[in-house]
Amino acid sequence: MSFAEVKKNFGFGCMRLPMQGEEVDLAQFSQMVDEYLAAGFNCFDTARVYLGGKNEPAIRERVAKRYPRESFLLADKISNALFETEEEVRPLFQKQLESCGVEYFDFYLMHAQGKGYFEKFKKCRAYEQALELKAEGLIRHVGLSFHDKAEVLDEILTEYLQMEFVQLQLHYMGYDDPAIQGRQCCEVCAKHGKSVIVMEPVKGGNLVKLPEDALRYITDLHGDSPAGYDSRGGRLLWGVYSDNTIFYLHTFVFPLQQSKMIYFYLMCSQQNIL
Question: What are 78-102's pLDDT values in tens digits?
């Protein structure tokens, strides 16, 4: 499955937003939103637990109130810390809609699924209730974000065939990491015919905060120009802001067979960096 409504395959994650003290810097966030949408992108991702709950109101004020609903897509999540019983799931969902200032979510995820959380979500019928909300038109697509072993993901997708996509932590350091099992989880998604959304493609920014020696090495590959080459001699697609911080390095998409990424996977070539 692919999602044609997602433009240019690059999402705006709202787990980390610019802050002024304890509050979201709404002026800077507005500028970021404006530039993102003006560039032709349209998909925002959030969760109620991010920034102590301050990100959803920020999205309401700087996205939902300022742009037509059809001009953007919004993903939100139901998180383990926010409910304890089956009866709390639907009221929580309604609060999320209100906080974000929207009448429906384009994507709604079972958040941070693993063996332990999955058992609680099943007990509280979180999956079933999300599917009911989808049938009522309040959710367009239902899926999950995942942090566990591939065998647990296989169990979830076998039990809940209705899940449309999986959000995975994927970056070059974790692709073959036995703790993250990026490759194996991708293979499970392909087995079940599920789309993959990439989260943490540059590990919260850590993979583009290069040591000086590594940055000098890449720059020397092509002089002073903001372009370089990967280990196979191909051109790296990378941009540099005026303050010389790297905006993105090396667009690369894993061969996921039937599974389709709907966010670009931005990463560095391991051989060039290390």
Answer: 999 999 999 999 999 999 999 999 9
Q: How many CB atoms sit inside 10 A of residue 48's CB?
A: 22
Average pLDDT value over all residues in the chain: 82
The answer to whether position 13 is within a domain reads: yes
Q: How far apart are CA 53 and CA 99, in angstroms?
A: 9
Number of Cβ atoms within 10 Å of the Cβ of 104:
15
Q: Is 87 within the bounds of a domain?
A: yes
Q: How far apart are CA 268 and CA 172, in angstroms?
A: 8
Q: Residue with structure tokens 């000086």? A: 212
Alpha helices for the chain (secondary structure H): 26-38, 55-59, 89-100, 115-123, 126-135, 150-159, 182-192, 212-220, 270-273
Amino acid at 224: D
Cβ atoms of 57 and 96 closer than 8 Å: no
How sure is the predictor about 227, in pLDDT bands with cuts at 50, 70 and 90? very low
Kindly report the CATH number assigned to the domain that includes residue 95: 3.20.20.100
Which residues span the domain enclosing 117?
1-146
Domain count, the chain: 1
Q: Does residue 157 sit within a domain?
A: no
Residues 6+ apart with CB under 8 A from 66: 30, 33
Q: Report yes or no on 239 lying in a domain.
A: no
For residue 222, give both structure tokens. Answer: 């092509």
Q: How far apart are CA 3 and CA 9, in angstroms?
A: 9
Q: Which residues contact 29 (CB under 8 A, 6 or more apart)?
A: 17, 18, 58, 62
